[in-house]
Amino acid sequence: GDSVTQMEGPVTLSEEAFLTINCTYTATGYPSLFWYVQYPGEGLQLLLKATKADDKGSNKGFEATYRKETTSFHLEKGSVQVSDSAVYFCALSAQGAQKLVFGQGTRLTINP
Amino acid sequence: ETGVTQSPTHLIKTRGQQVTLRCSSQSGHNTVSWYQQALGQGPQFIFQYYREEENGRGNFPPRFSGLQFPNYSSELNVNALELDDSALYLCASSSGQRTGAFNYGYTFGSGTRLTVV
Q1: Residue B105 — pLDDT band, cuts 50, 70, 90?
Q2: pLDDT at res. B96
Q3: Nearest residue in chain B measured CA to CA from A107
Q4: Region for B37 from its dihedrals, namely left if φ exceeds 0, alpha if ψ lies in -120 to 50, beta otherwise
């Protein structure tokens, strides 16, 4: 079945460091790919998405590129801030499917 | 847009009891899904409703059931609660087609934290 694998966490960085959170997926066809963020005590917020190969999603300085050849959708940010501390989830939605399939989440902590 | 609102925010129930969780979807969103998020895990799909009918179900037993109403509200009912049902329950809505998640993703509520003791 469809699945999403994220890099093991937690991840701790200093402010202004470069961030990469790896995400790979397994799915038939051409799924849509998403990154969601969850701040403490809150639900999930859509951070960015890409619906076809080579698309780049971007928002709030975060970027991720849909790589069909490597089945990846890695999240990157050039300079992180303390306010970026949260749990990040990579997810996919397969064509014709009714659901999102999530990875296990990566907890990110940014120290000042 | 009014967002997705869930109630209550926290709930404590005893094993064997029944619980009803409520969700008010974003206006115009006729697709609603429910997810269970255990501590430290990613959300797991329970089921989806589209125009008041169940439109897909994850690997959850029948004691998990739902309803969707014409006013974009919905309910998740869980019977015969078990300790492992303790989790954050998330409601998510999407606009348009039965498979709205594919193109648009979902708007999530803040969840109901259920603790079964």
Answers
A1: low
A2: 60
A3: B40
A4: beta
